[in-house]
Fold each of these.
Amino acid sequence: MVSVAEMSEITSPTVVNQTAPMPNPANPKVERGMIEIEQLDFAYGTNKVLHDINLSIPARAVTAFIGPSGCGKTTLLRCLNRMNDLIDSARITQGSIRIEGVDINASSVDVVDLRRRVGMVFQKSNPFPKSIYDNVAYGLRIAGTTKRTLIDEAVEKSLRSAALWDEVKDRLHVSGYGLSGGQQQRLCIARALAVEPEIVLMDEPCSALDPIATAKVEELIRQLKEQYTIVIVTHNMQQAGRCSDHTAFFYLGRLIEFDDTTKIFSNPGQRQTEEYITGRFG
Amino acid sequence: MEGVADPRTLIPERTKSRRAQVVIEQAIKAFFGGNALVAVIVLALITIFLFREGFGFFGQNLANLRLYRQAGLEYVDIIRGNAAQHESLSRKLSEIRLREVRVMEKRNVPLEEINAALAPFDQFASAFSDTAENLHGLVSDLTDQASALKEQLFARAELLAQRNQLERSGAQTEAEKIVVPEVDRAAALARLREGSARFESVSAEITAKLYNLLAQAPAMPDPAGQKHFEQWKTRARKYLAGLPAASEKLRTWSPDTPIPWYRSISSFLFGRDWVTASFWQDWYGIIPLLVGSVLVSIVALVIAVPLGVASAIYVSEIASRHEKRLIKPYIEFISAIPSVVLGFFGIAVVGQAVRAASQSHFFKWVSFFPISERLNIFTAGCLLALMAVPTIFTLSEDALRNVPRGFKEASYALGANRLQTIARVLVPASLSGIVSAILLGLGRVIGETMVVLLCAGNRIAIPDFTQGLGAIFQPVHTMTGIIAQEMGEVVRGSTHYRALFMVGLVLFTITLAINYLAQKFVARYRMSIG
Amino acid sequence: MTATASNSRRVHLVQGILFWIFRLATYFVLACATYIFLDIGIKGSRTVFTSTPPFINVPFLTEPPQTLYVFDYEGKKMALSDRQFRQWKVEHPGTEVEASSIAYSAGGIWPCIVGTALLVIGSMILALGIGISSAIYLSEYSRNGPLIRLVRIAILNLAGVPSIVFGLFGFGLFVIFFGWNVSLIAGWFTLGLMVLPAIITASEESLRAVPQGLREGSLALGASKWQTIRKNVLPYAMPGILTSSILGIARVAGETAPIMFTAAYAMKDELPWQVTRMTDFFFQGVMALPYHIYVVSSKIPQNEYTERVQYGSAFVFLFLVMLIALTSIILRERSRSRLSW
Ligand SMILES: Nc1ncnc2c1ncn2[C@@H]1O[C@H](COP(=O)(O)OP(=O)(O)OP(=O)(O)O)[C@@H](O)[C@H]1O
Ligand SMILES: [Mg+2]
């Protein structure tokens, strides 16, 4: 019998010499914050929604997932921090996902650790029914930080980097529900940044925002890529063009094309990609 | 596995405490899971226990029925049936007399004249009941014989069971100490069956006397009375014609005809008598209780459904915001009134009121008024209606309120007024929800104990439906009531004890079925509103 | 044109009449309930309240029930409680009176209040402990397989099983099979199991009403399952759980049928804590208010002497149960307006 963990090691040779999670100069293939998806098949019950995805998401860059509705972008994104574990029928039927060379679905990986390092901002903003301060401090307190000053600092820092600080600094202790939709979304971003993840997954973070708030979030994304690996799902082509470095185009559960954003938008390799980008899709 | 990285290295510095945390997490999950398991097991146990205790009933009841035949009780009851018919005919005669007296009183005939006019009839009636004297004597003789035999057989069976028990547990010497007396059943039965001949002579005597009597029956002073009397005569002739058949039955009766096993079930499910702790024979027929429960529930629902649904429509569609905010909690508040308080209120106030109303002039035209019992189906039904209204109201109101706004707006947009919108759009759309509310109300009513125990009158009898609607003013006993009343006094493991468990099981099944149906309707409602 | 006008006037009239019928039906229901409240409230308050300070009939609330003796003496009608009657006899040696005795009609209802409180506390601890934990397991941990669905349906259906059936079960299993006799502990288990399905169902519903987004948001921040439940699910489900628990209390306190032959005595002289050994505490029967009301309304006649205790007990009991129910209704209305996603 070969256990799942062992199997993943057999199929993923890069793991074999991996000894440290930190950037490993001896092994340039493994870099802090990089994600490798290999031959991934995924199904909800009997409904297969992802087919044979092979994708290597580079570290410290913004990668955009685009594609028509229902093609599996959210599903793939949720695979990256194992959010799909929560759905009873959801299963990875084949393939592996490695972050920094470690198979995240191995039985020995602690899913709580994984999620701490791979933060997520959801398609529908979901602030907790707590104060703004408590929303941001939540992740830290969960991780065991009790020192008030530390938390205060972290809250301010993350609210600043989410470009929300100036708007809320006078009402940190009112409910997060009192914020506007756009502010709520930025609050969720701040909340995700507060625990200092290495990877941030964003599922259509701007779908409910006005152009000004969108601009703020986009600006934020551009700043964040200095420190974080960012994966963003978007339906907005301009947005993908503006703020991503790489773009992956999905169609009906398959990865059609993955390349530099400039290349995808100026000279796509596939006809389907071109039709989708130019809006001639049908 | 050599050289393989520790996959935990995602955050290496926290590994140890994380491991402890994982253990704690597992423990918490196990704790909750354990509790859920306990809950499920205990609730399953209830069901199993009910069934275990209930199903034991059938074996014991079969033994009970067999003893009834083997000890000759059945034989005696054939004769008793005839005696009962005779008595019922006697009763009918006095009813006819009573009616006659009333008619004449209305015509302001003085009492002496009435008595004089009815003297021949009275003579006839007393002669009629005298004819049964020997029959009653025969019945009481045979009753004594048969119950003595039954007693002996029963005692013997008990001792045998005791001895077997001891033998099985290995106490041989003690087992042998128990002397099981022999019962000469054949001889006793033979003596009993001499009753056949006696019955034949008695019935010949009755037949002769009665035909004689009937031939010279007096005429009634009043034509309507005469009609009733003629009807009675036909019945009397029928009774006489049936006597030879009874003789025949007695002759062919055999104590050894086997009783099939299913009789034990059918005598429970279709039996029309519930007689317990009787010196003669116990019967466990659920029909009178079931009929009682059903009638009480019907009365309750007939009152509660219109009120509940109407108030639900009123509150959800017609009432102003302020009314709504007051009425809704108030009606929900009603559902919290403890049933025993309602029952007490029924005894103290409603029962009296119902009887007083039935005596009032206002209701003179109602044929079955005034009523004699203040605690009856109707009294209990009224109170149960008050318990059912909140259930029906709350759930119907929910169903009406959750109909999507779009339905309503579409109707208004087509120029329909509020009434039309309610009748054509809202009620149809929420109909399955309302039906489910009514079903749950029924479930609540049929399972209610204290109100029926206190207010339904507790007479174990199927109401006399010949009175038409008057039947709902008669006292009944119910399934819940009988359990509450008799459970405290039964011997554990006795047939009676198990019979009560069977009643509980029937109740359990009925309420489960009602609940299940209600859920089906809820599901359909959800589908219909999308 | 006029035809349509008269037609529409007729439609309007019909609508008006029907609406009035609906309104009357609604107010009829309210009036009936109000009548009950008033009848019991007014007649009961004659027993429970007094016209002199302290305005509350303290003896009625703090004494055990006693037998009432009614007799004629020197042309006066005397109605004395058991104790008073004995004293009276001592004071009037040699006088022979023909006293008719009416059980339970003198004294108060203190042991019944105590018994009901004990029954409610014990059974609710049992039911809430097991019920809420089970609900948490079912809604948060269990995978939604066919088995769990079956369990859920079974529990939902059991919530509708009549209380007398639970009483029957409790009598058969606890009182007889386990040999606990008529006792507090048998009552606890019977009542606890009776409300268990309702509590599980209602608590699970409250838990499921918490949006999935809150759980996901918390988990995505690296919270463990239990941290998520404790910090981000339970607090928001708590008002709902609390409401259903309080309703459960009202139900447990108000039920008579299940305790009739598992826990309640018609008459008991000692109070529950007057026991020689600790274990006896659990294995003793108690008096209980609902059962007391059943006894005094069915086992003794209805007349001027019994009215006092009948209406008095009914009033106190109704007051207590309604207070609990009112708390739960107010709590729910409040939380409804506060927490809405
Ligand atoms: N929880 C679920 N259970 C079953 N099937 C699901 C579930 N979530 C998504 N699916 C199915 O999986 C497929 C991919 O869904 P997914 O949410 O990943 O699409 P998407 O690309 O994010 O679409 P959108 O752009 O509209 O958000 C869809 O066909 C959807 O029906
Ligand atoms: Mg999506």
Amino acid sequence: MSAPLLDVADLNVEFATPAGPLHAVRDLGFALQPGETLGIVGESGSGKSQAMLALLGLLAANGRASGRAMFEGADLLALGETALDRVRGARIAMVFQDPMTSLNPYLTVGRQMGLVLAAHRALAGAPARRACAEMLEAVGIPEAGRRLDQFPHELSGGMRQRVMIATALLCRPALLVADEPTTALDVTVQAQILALMRDLRERFGTAVILITHDLSVVAGMADRLLVMQQGQCRETGPAAEIFAAPRDAYTRSLLAAVPRLDRPAALVPPPREVAGAPLLEAEGLRVEFAVAATRPLGRPRRLQAVAGVSFGLAPGEILGVVGESGCGKSTLGRALLRLVPVAGGRVGYLGRDLTALDSAELDPLRRDLQIVFQDPLASLDPRMTVRDIVAEPLETFEPTLDDGVCTNKVAEMLTRVGLDPSHMNRYPHQFSGGQCQRIAIARALITRPRLVVCDEAVSALDVSVRAQILRLLLELRRLLDLSLVFIGHDLAVIRQVSQRVMVMYLGRIMEMAPAETLFATPRHPYTRALLAAAPIPDPVVERARERIGLPGEPPSPLSPPSGCVFRTRCRWAVARCATEVPPLAAHGASQVACLRAAEI
Amino acid sequence: MLRFILQRLLTGIPTLLVLVALAFFLIRAAPGGPFDSERQLPPEIEANMRRAYHLDEPLPMQFARYLGGLARGDFGPSFQYRDFTVTELIGAGFPVSLRVGALAMLLAVLVGVSVGTFAALRQNRAADHAVMAAAMTGISIPNFVMAPLLVLVVAVGLGWLPAGGYGDGGWRHLLLPVVTLALPQIAYLARLTRASMIEVLRSAYIRTARAQGLPLRTIILHHALRPALLPVVSYLGPATAAVITGSVVIEQIFGLPGIGRFFVTGALNRDYTLVMGVVVFYGTLILVFNLLVDLIYGVLDPRIRHDA
Amino acid sequence: MSLVRQDEAPRSLWQDAGAALRQNRAATVAALVLALITLSVVVLPEVLPFGYEQTDWDHIATGPSLGTGHLLGTDALGRDLLVRTLWGGRVSLLVALVATAVSLLIGVTYGAVAGYAGGRIDQVMMRIVDILYALPFMFLVILLMVLFGRNLVLIFVAIGAINWLDMARIVRGQTLSLRNREFVEAARAGGVPAARIIRRHIVPNLLGVVVVYVTLTIPHVILVESFLSFLGLGVQEPMTSWGALVNEGAQELETSWWMIVFPSAFLAVTLFCCNFLGDGLRDALDPRDRSHR
Ligand code: SF4
């Protein structure tokens, strides 16, 4: 084996905090060969990002790093700022998570790239511009020349991440460090970016360190793996070996916690056949938002967030709603509970039209209809105690309830969701994210509702916590005989918990089918593309997969395409797709909105 | 961009109208007329004078007449300085006020921004703390306190500079007024720049720039300065208003023949047209300046420019 | 980095902020000094042997001295400077409190209504604020004082009327963002009526910014009042205020230095402490800073 490109030993990172020193990374060591890809995997707080920031001297002001990191003959940790500046950006480049905030919004793309070339290559003017344009083309950005003069906010999310990567590769670095490069992106765009990174790695022979919380992302990328927990390395070795036979207990639990898209759900019971009236029924539901006019004094434009959605939900059923960001799934969830004004259609609940009720008539019904939000901390009032937060719906619906009885009910509910009731006088900021989500669930369930909408309820949580919360939700559903509408962007999670799945795109239903049917035989081109794009946490499966990428990104909901809204990205699109709106029609057990569903 | 300018101009007009109307009707609603001090005037003469000044017409007429005059840049005659029009008085005082005010603003922005940036780069170190303590002091000492104190020390005590007067308008006469006028603004701008610079330096895109190995100078000048200056730019409007207001007392204390002095004497003598002329004049000035500031902001922030 | 703190007592955000404020030595000292100034302004004039308009014919314009009993000296009319400064402080602080209360009342109501109503109503209300905001208010206030004479009530109203604009803007922005926060949405989903949402969720979460803003408004009001008094447009003789005293001092600059130095010092120290306290409160109450820890 040749000399390693990067050799890290005894890396320690400490932060000075008011509460005393915080040891973020402990005695970390690893080596990276030229051209190799190392995946660093860990949950939040594992120190995975801090370790890499430390190597590049990018720690926050209260951070200190010690140890040794040999790179091309020099110890990175011993270099001064000036010497480090000759390494950063030139020999080691970094790509960050959120391309919107990581690019300077005040400078054009060309200017930001140009500054890098000027600093490392002393290149300016026309040659620099040419080099930048070439690199933009290399990362798959069309019309590179024009893009150079645009500002980041004029580009789409995927495009911005491509710009980040192009800038990183400008000086042909020997090592590219990518810190959660696809976490902020939709799954189809994530697939594009991962494919691009694989391709560029081959073309430039760059070594890559891929930092991520998502085991499925590294499965298809990494040669070797390093699993971190609480600042320490738990296990390291060839990726294939670790995925096949993890030795460390933590790694094992982590792998077990990751839901797999390619396996049937273990968590949900098969749907019961229900006769009789549905619990909830939407008919041609539409939600519109006014968007500020582009011109002064112009009329505000209408954005159709939900554009005619119809479905029924049986008592006790779990419906999964999935789609990319901006597809209207969250708005749909809120519209079902009338938390946003409904522009058209109706929502029937046990035979009553919710959209026709005024708030005095609606409020008593809210007891039956609850919601759990994505960000657990934001959904709890920071100035109220946990007891008051959980008790609030109870006090609203049973104002005559005795305080002591109320407290007892809260304690009982907290126990149910796995919290210590003796903590009920604490405030939300004193709990972890997972605990906060348990509190939010307790609040939603305290009135014994019939339906709970879970809006990305586990997306903000770490994998292991996520699995616990999902299990808790399903357990409570069984006990309390709830119906759930489970909204999410992660197909694997949706598969794990749903009995029926609805796929949305630009405010419309593309396909709706029983979960197993949908995942086994997706019929709509969009569903197929989604499934193909979602990575699977298994290097063997991942590498053997045929990659049919979905090009481009969803168009703006302000100006949806005519006919089939998916046609601009559809492989099977034909002329009539532009003129005819495909109805949601039955094909076997599935309902599909595609004109060519029968042929493909 | 043109549309942006037009839009801002359009929003400025109602403000101006409100200002003029407010000033006008406040004055008419006030007890006691402008000739109160000369109560012995025979009634027919007073009536003549009222007619001469159009005070006998109904209010809406007077207002329309006044607006018409304004449109032509005519603020009407002064009640006290009988031989001058208000326009002439303002015209005489403005060069002095402008000179002092503009120099003070310039000084404030230059010193304030550089000191603020300097402190931000040394965040939480001794130099930073010293600068910020000084800035806090600067904010807490009103300039009508600072001015006499400086006169007491520099002019009366040490005798280095004249205690007042405009003289030939040379630096010896301007230094103290300009510095006292600028000090609170320097302090405010320094705090503002420091806070916004620190905020910007914490942002993700600065981390990106550091990861790209750009030298600190490049990062500050090319990446950080522009966004850090945005809050400073939007403060320029209020700063101008504050400097103009401050100039009223400063001109008074240092005996400078600017608009502020006319304003104070006018106010004490109930010279309605003069007071109102100054209010409208300075109000317009501030509005125009706010417009300019908006435009600068639009140039600095690409997102605003595209939204408009 | 989420640190799960297991064994700890309940701590509300207010308790957190209080602790942070006590940690801030500058703010603590500032608060103490302010308390001291307020106390002496209230109590001392009742105790000291001179009245604010009482002339001591034996000591006209004498410097500070222990022997004469005039600790800070006397003015050109032989009035005790300490007593007059304290009386000036009473006026300045009273104006500050009342005018701040006025701006608080108008500003919070206006801002909260605009923010909670949203939509068209909010747009119109804020447009009005924008227009008023662009007016050179200081000049209008001076105009007002000139026209309607110099009485205290007018000062209260005029100054309060300037400051409510800022307050309205801040409260409106905060309300708007609170209204869209998930915990408010969760309360609505829980069937909590609007009035109760405002009382239980919006108002307590507004309180932080309002408290900070009030501490920063008070020095501003003091400044405006003393500015007016300095120009001779504020309170009238023989009653006085800090600004008026500074003005008198400025006229006797070359003969009686104490007449400008002491009132100036009181004024500057008060402003200084208010600003420091306001800064400290803002740091302590800023939720963003807390999440950094
Ligand atoms: S209708 Fe046409 S464009 Fe739409 S999904 Fe089917 S084939 Fe594709």
